[in-house]
């Protein structure tokens, strides 16, 4: 059953990517939280800004495949091998995130992968914290489902290649801990997965502090912020229209994706509902003036990004639910 759950987690990533890309860059309305959006897209039809075929995936799943192949071909997580595969992929990419592009460009020019990721973060004033590494991270959860230490290390190293900010690195570790628990535990419910993620935030922060004591303040702030996100995810309204965390104004922010993923896990009744809900772009569009319409046009992309995390966790969670149903028969 663990193998089936692992497949579900990986397929959740690809399915969500293929579904979500159709509405990238579009602005649509959505009901206020906690009501779930019921459309408009309920099937994978392709199209979108990249003109993909129905079922075709984008950069996020492609990078996850690079990561998966590296994990399968090496005895342990090797940051140089993973980064080399990302660089090789980049030459063929039809879409790539800005932080990812900057870091991999530096790697291609000879910078070591971890230095490249850190450079991008420092150059941003230690502010860049996009959701790119979180979107591709699930193969690590699958590969190291039963190995907490190896999974934590790989999650944070992979993120560091392109998304060095402690918020990104710890989010990947916490997210993968929840997915791994969904794969391995029999049975686990959504609240248990959130509890696992919450505990992992602290474990990952401790591990990161030992590695980079000079970043102690950023690491402590990241752990606190991600803990707050998990608390917000449990509320009917996850407070994603505030000044700091805004689903439209900070759409690519890792914390938006992280919070939304766990909100879907706790609130969407099924994998499909969570998926459709996330493809629906902005909520509460009517709350904003016409001048903000341009911002909202980027919402589709943001939702597509956030979708991937939600799908992976929700997908794994639903498989657990199905297992429970089967056991109850
Ligand atoms: Mg994409």
Ligand inventory = magnesium ion
How many structural domains?
1
Largest sheet: none
CATH fold-level label? ADP-ribosylglycohydrolase fold
Q: Structural class given helices, strands, pairing? A: mainly alpha
The residue ranges in which pLDDT falls below 50 over 5 or more consecutive positions are 280-329
Cα(first) to Cα(last) distance is: 17 Å
| Computed Rg | 18 Å
| Quaternary organisation of the protein chains | single chain
Mean pLDDT: 82
Strand coverage percent: under 5%
Number of strands: 0
The CATH top-level class label: Mainly Alpha
The H-level CATH homologous superfamily, spelled out, is: ADP-ribosylation/Crystallin J1
Number of helices: 15
CATH architecture: Orthogonal Bundle
- The H/E string reads HHHHHHHHHHHHHHH
The coarse silhouette is globular
Helix content: 55-70%
Please render the helix and strand layout as text:
Elements: H1 2-20, H2 59-73, H3 79-90, H4 98-108, H5 113-123, H6 132-136, H7 138-143, H8 148-162, H9 166-184, H10 190-211, H11 216-233, H12 254-267, H13 271-279, H14 293-296, H15 299-328
The chain binds magnesium ion (MG).
């Amino acid at each position: 059953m663990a193998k089936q759950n692992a497949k579900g987690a990986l397929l959740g990533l690809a399915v969500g990517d293929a579904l979500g890309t159709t509405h990238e860059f579009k602005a649509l309305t959505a009901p206020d939280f906690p009501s779930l959006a019921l459309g408009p897209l309920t099937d994978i039809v392709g199209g979108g800004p990249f003109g993909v075929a129905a079922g075709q995936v984008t950069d996020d799943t492609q990078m996850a495949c690079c990561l998966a192949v590296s994990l399968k071909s090496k005895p342990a997580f090797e940051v140089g091998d993973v980064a080399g595969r990302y660089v090789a992929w980049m030459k063929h990419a039809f879409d790539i995130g800005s932080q990812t592009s900057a870091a991999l460009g530096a790697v291609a020019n000879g910078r070591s992968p971890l230095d490249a990721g850190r450079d991008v973060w420092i150059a941003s004033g230690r502010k860049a914290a996009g959701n790119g590494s979180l979107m591709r991270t699930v193969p690590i959860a699958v590969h190291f489902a039963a190995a907490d230490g190896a999974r934590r290390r790989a999650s944070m190293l992979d993120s560091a290649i392109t998304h060095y900010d402690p918020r990104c690195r710890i989010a990947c570790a916490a997210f993968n801990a929840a997915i791994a628990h969904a794969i391995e535990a029999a049975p686990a419910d959504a609240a248990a997965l959130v509890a696992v993620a919450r505990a992992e935030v602290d474990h990952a922060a401790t591990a990161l502090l030992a590695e980079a004591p000079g970043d102690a303040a950023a690491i402590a702030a990241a752990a606190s912020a991600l803990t707050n996100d998990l608390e917000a995810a449990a509320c009917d309204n996850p407070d994603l229209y505030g000044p700091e965390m805004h689903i439209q104004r900070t759409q690519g922010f890792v914390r938006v994706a992280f919070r939304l993923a766990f909100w879907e896990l706790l609130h969407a009744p099924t994998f499909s509902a969570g998926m459709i809900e996330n493809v629906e772009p902005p909520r509460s569009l009517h709350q904003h003036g016409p001048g903000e319409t341009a911002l909202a046009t980027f919402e589709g992309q943001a939702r597509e990004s956030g979708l991937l995390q939600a799908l992976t966790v929700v997908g794994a969670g639903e498989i657990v639910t199905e297992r429970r149903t089967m056991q109850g028969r």
